[in-house]
Every structure is written in structure tokens, then in C-alpha cells.
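User: Here's a chain of 722 residues. Predict its fold as C-alpha cells.
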Amino acid sequence: MVAVSDGQEAAQAPASRPAPVGRPLLSLTLASMLDDVDAHSGAVYLLAAREPVLEMAVSAGLPRAFAAPWERVGLNAPIPVAEAVRDRRLVWVGGEHEMARRYPRIAVVLPYPFALAALPVATAATVYGAAYVTWPGSHPPDLSDRERERLTAACDRLALRLERAAAENRPLHPEPDLLTPSASEPGGTLGTVEATRMVGRLPYGLCSLDLHGRVGFANAATAELLGVPVSHLLGTQLWAAVPWLNDPVYEDRYRAALISQHVTSFVALRPPGDWLSFRLYPSTNGLSVRISRARPVSEMTRAGPQSRDGSPRLVTISHVLSLASALTEAAGVQDVVQLVADEISPAVGSQSLVVLASRAGRMHVLGHRGYPDAHVVERFNGLPLSEPTPGTQALNTGVPAFFDSREQLERLYPSRNATPDGMGAWAYLPLVASGRPVGTCVLGYARSHHFAADERAVLTSLSGLIAQALERALLYDAKLQLAQGLQAALLPASLPPLASIEAAARYLPATQGMEIGGDFYDLVSSDGRAAAVIGDVQGHNVTAAGLMGQIRTAVRAYTAVGQAPAEVMGSTNRLLIDLGTELFASCLYLRLDPARHVAVMARAGHPPPLLLRPDGKVKALDLAGGPLLGIDAHAVYPTTEVPLVPGSVLALYTDGLIETPGVDIEVTLAGLARRLAANGLQPLDELADTLLQRGDEEVWERPDDVALLLLRVRPDRGTGTV
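Assistant: Prediction complete.
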């Protein structure tokens, strides 16, 4: 099968039968799409049969090497074709600046002016794949309605034909990529001969390159300037025939000219001291190159030429740039594992992945993908590093190991028979960062796989990038675990049960920094009464968290000795000043008296609490108060008595809940009040979760941490205690 169903109901078949499936179906469709919208290049992807991966089936207009990092794309990858499939919509990127902003991984590899449209190839019931087309940078920044309609119609027709082929069990056969044929020769032999003579008399070099960079014509001046006979140039890539042109900087100019369709140029040093100027004139079927002598260049910052190893350098560089960009986005260990699974595994064609690390002399599995039975992998947890296995060997020695077949692996490691994983080839990549091994990445292939020298070089390079990302991730996870543990220790593990008061609390760390902060809350029962406090120490770091713990402890102590709310606030203020810290804190303290149905509140620069009354109306309480804690040792904190009838809900919160960059705080406070009024009858725990939701934001980016404490007055039970 070439498709997977997304579970939607199938659409009604169109009244007219679709056209017969043409051969070659994908190539013809793609060529028609490019012609309809005057696009420059494009490709069609099909969904893999048993993997959430898009595989490039056919490309056109440019060599496939230009898109090598995206020949296999995970459905979760931040790539236009994957996004088009996920969202079932056309994705438009209007130019290089928009590409850099939305898809930086692509912009790193292809930093050239071009526009791109990606579309899903799908019926109402089934996704078959995706397609994209590109235009040179001269395309307008917006996609026209005509282009949009023609692209959408073409993909819809292709989906219907793929649906028909699948229903008739007709497999799709491999199809060759389409490159624009060379322009026809001038009519007549005489004209061709005379044109050759004319070019041969020119004092500068002229040569033509096809879309793959192969030389199709070169005049005598070209051979003289490059120092290579014409016979050695024809039919070969220019950078392969001329060793000193074998440099990524020059190949980049070749790519830039073809993708952008803009004239590009560069200057190169022909050893020992001759500088040559190259000017590249692109068209849709290749490049015309003008070569002339240039003035000496005093400084060149590029790296020197490197020896060619037979690998297509553009593929290698593109893969490394793209995947390096992806790995910079990983934060925790599981992010690294997921990125390797989504980005690297599809790119190199592996079907399974295991990431291993060592701890206390034993091996531990950090994550794995592609194994239906997790026990196959998890049995390696706790394996001593002294055990003779390929994973421990790679981890101990730092030397990668490649096994083309099961027989090769079992011949070197006979004990491997005891732990079959169903794979047919493996790459064991040591992850070495800062001069020390941090783990091993194991890539598994479903069938026997020959690892050529260039592929081993790419995988080894990628292992270094993965190692650096994993080292950062391990450190991040350790810091996060420490921060979360410290925060949990400083906040109450649970709220005490009270007879007359129902309570619920929530804490959310900031999404920036160490995910630890100075927001706190507490509920204290003392002498038949209850006291509640919420506050916010300036900052969200370890210092703020430590000071928060001291303030919370002090409030509990002052409450226990029977101080009134004004005295509790004044004593806490003086304590903060005596500690000599430069941090300030806002605070709201209240003493609950259910027998009288009142709460006595004292406020120190804290946001006003919200009171939901039984009639459904919400009011922001305008409380008397004093300055922030820690500013003035002589500050006075007056109190306010607030009626609390049974059924009332009191919402105490910190400013992180109502502060949104660029939005007036009165607007966000009104929004919080509306959510409280609309959901006030919910159970208190559900209400707390509701108040923390941001319906207009998929991910709530919080520059500050958030604390929330809800108190609901239960109906009278004939007692004056809490």
C-alpha cells in the first residue's frame, strides 16, 4: 500500500470517473504542475507503508542532491511538506526571509532567494503523501489565486489516481527524476561550427554546465585558464575535474545560481598564485560560466581545498547542516531522542534507534524508537560496561562500528544471538563530547545494508553533533530535576483539610530559565481558625526560591503564635529587611473566620484577589495595603474585613497569571474574572485547572511563574471551627 487512512469518512466519489492512471503517473503529474504555474523545481512524496515518514518518490527541475536532507521526512518534522500533511492545507513560504523565520533548518542548508509551496496529496479519507514546487527569488511574495487553484487541483487529481491504483492493487513503479532537457542546437551544421569558432577566439573562458554541474562545452581559453585539457573537462563535474575548485564555497555558488536563478560569481586561487574570476549565468537547463583573470586577493577566509573521496559533497554538507540545526532545538534527553528519530533516522534510512548512556559502570537506555517490543531494548538497562557487546565496546573505545548483516555481527559477538531485535544491519556510533564518551547511538536497518565510506563519514560526523546535544540535554535534565525537587520541597505537599473551607492550589514554573521561582502559597490551621497566604518573591531562580522558603516558614510561625494579620505582615517585612537581601516580595495574607463569615486581609503590593459570590457575580477586592515587603522597616499594613458567605469562592493568585506582554493588565484581569464566573460551579480542582488554561495559546509561554490558591466556603454545619 502507498497510503494510510486518517480515520475520516470517505468522501462521495465524483460523478465522472477519474482519468486512467498514467505511466509514469508521478512524473507526469509533477511536470504538469511545474508547467501550469511556471515553477522552477519540485518533488512528490509518498507516505511509507509502515512508518510515519514521507519518502521522495520523484523530483524535477533540480538535482535530487539539493534536497538530500529531506529525501525522507518524519511527519513530525518542522518541514513544509510534513506540515502540509499534518494540517491538510497548502503551506506557502514567500521568500528567503520567511523561510529563515519559519523553517530555519531549511534556510541553513539553502540560504538562497526562492519561494515554495507545499501541498498534501490526499482524499477526504486517506493521505497518500505531499508535493512541493519552488520558484526563483523573483516570484512575488504572495501566491496568486490562479497558482493556488491549479496546484490544489493537481494534487487532488493525483490523490484520486493513487486511490484508484490502490483499490486495484496496482503498485507504483519507481520513476526517474525529471531534469529539463538541454536546449536544442542551432539549426544547420554551418551555424554550429561557426559558433564554436567564434567562442574559441574569445580571450576569456566560456563553458556550459548541466544541472548536475557536468561540463558540456568548454573553449580553449577555459582549458588554458584552468590548466586542464578540454577532453578531461567534458562530461565531468567542474569541481571534480579541477582539484583546486573542490571546495564547498564554490559549490555553494553553483547551487545559489540554480536555485535563485540569479547571476552569481566567486574568485578562486589557482595554485600557486593566479586568481581567477568565475561568473555563473543560470537558466532552467544549466549554467553558462565565464572565466577570466582577476586581481590578486590578499586574504581568503575560506578553508583550503579538501581531497575528494568519491562522495557527493553537496549531500554530505546539506545533511550535516540540516541536522545540526535540528539538534540545536533539543532541550532534554527525550527531545534529543525524538529529534534523532524524527530527523536523522529517516534521513539515513534506518528503521530503529536506541540511545545508550553509562552511569556507575553500567549501561542505561535513555530512549528508543522503532521496536514494537520494548523488552528487547530494556533488557540492556543495567548491563555492565565490561560485558563484550557492540554497544559497550563503542562506548568504551569511542570507535564507531558498522555491521552490514546479522551474520557479520554474530560472528564477532556470538552472544548477540540471545537478544534478537529483528534488524538486519547496525551502526554503533559512540557519542563523544568534550573529550569524554557520553553515550552510544545505535541505528538499526531492517535489511542488510552496506555502509559505504562516505556514509560512514556522514554518520560519524552526525554522532559528534548528537553527542554535543546529548551532553547539553543531560545537564539540562539534571538542573531541571534539581530545580523541581527544590521547588516541591519549598511548597506544601498538600493542603490541610478544613471543616468549613474547601481549598485547591496550583503552581506553574516559568517556561524560561531554570523553571524555579519565588511564587508561594500556604494554608494554615491554627486555634480553630484558618489562615491563607500567597506571595511572589522577585525573580525566578534559586535565590528567589530560597528566600520564598524563609518567608513561608516565617508566616507559619507568626500565625502559630497568634499574631493578627497586620502583625504577621509587619513581622515578615522586618524579617526580610533583616536578612539583608536585595530582593522584594509581594504578599497577601488573610485570616478566615467562618463563624462570622468574614475574612480579614492584609496586602503588600500584591494583585487584588477575586471574589465569586453565590449569585455568580465576580468582584476584584479593593483592599487597603502597604508597600512591597523588604522596602521600609517601618511600613504599616492596614487590614480589610471582607464578607464570605457560604458558597463564595475566593481566588488568590500571583501576577504571572494575569501579566501578558503587550496586553493591559486590566484586560487580562477582566478575562480571568469572566472565566471564574463562567466556571464557578465546577469542583474546585477542575476550576483551578480551568483558570490556568489559555484558550488562545497552544503553548503558554510564561516569562514568570504562577501560583493560584482557591478557597470555597462550605455551607454552615453548625460549627464555628474550620
